[in-house]
Amino acid sequence: MFDFSVIDGVYGWFNEDLLQIFGLEAWHLLFGMVFILIAGMMWMVKALIEWITVKNWLTLLSYVNCILISFLILQVIDRSAYRSPAVSLPEYFWSISLLAISTYGLVLVLIRSVSKVAKLLKRKSKKAA
Question: Using an 8 Å Cβ cutoff, are 26 and 14 in contact?
């Protein structure tokens, strides 16, 4: 059901004889490493999210969350295409997908910048009048 090819590759890095001395298997170390990675990322990202929230950057937070959800959906599509021989994705699937995500972010930044500049100019023209 799940493709563990990456995990199997990392599993090969560990010397099983050394791990057996301590009564461990490579899967225990993999679990521990991923657990520590998530704990460390949570510790670092929490401070960043608090700062972004204080600065009221809800658009940035929304965009980052949408990127993560999009990656998840695209990864599911990619994995399902590898499983079934009837579906084959083109070679440029990821490059076009990443280009679309980046372009949307660029358009979002441009629209918000133009909007802020327009509001600033409108405010200055009201003060001048």
Answer: yes
Same domain membership, residue 107 and residue 96: yes
Same domain, 33 and 87: no
Mean pLDDT, residues 40-67: 85
pLDDT in tens, 55-78: 878 888 888 889 989 988 888 888
Domain that holds residue 49: 1-56
Residues 6+ apart with CB under 8 A from 77: 89
Question: How big is the CA angle at 60 (ends 36 and 54), to the nearest 5 degrees?
Answer: 80
Three state DSSP letters for 52-64: HHHCCCHHHHHHH
Tokens 């695209």 belong to which residue? 74
Q: Is the dihedral of CA 83, 87, 91, 93 positive or negative?
A: negative
What letter would DSSP give residue 14?
Answer: S
Do 77 and 90 belong together in one domain? yes
What contacts 25, CB < 8 A, 6 or more positions away? 16, 19
**pTM, entire model:** 0.59
